[in-house]
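Quick check before the chapter quiz. The format below is the same one you will see on the exam, so make sure you can read both the input and the output lines.
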Amino acid sequence: MISQEQVFEAIRGERLYQDSKWGTILQHPHTVAEWLLIMQSELNEGLAAWVGNEGEAQALLEILQVVSVGVACLEQHGVVNRAESSPGVEMVLISRDDLIQAVQVLEDLLAGRLQAAL
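Here is the expected output.
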């Protein structure tokens, strides 16, 4: 098991890689729906890697890509506090520390979905 900080560092590194490969979110903005489709595509690649016996390393790389794409979406569109996400409530931008915590929640959610799908 690795530390949370090592996970966040990997996410930061993947975000830099994505920006260098695809351009920044300012250069190529997407709607939230488009980000979700990109995340779904990456998640499907992760499932295919795992089911296709490409090994956990490839599946984990795809999960890192899913999480990093999610971070890019949040960077572009902001983060909504869970307690304030009911209809009619304006978006609330949160701190970097809260964003890091949100990434962990997303990571846990994706890990749970991956296990549930198997």
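If your answer matched, good. The chain has one domain: 30-117.
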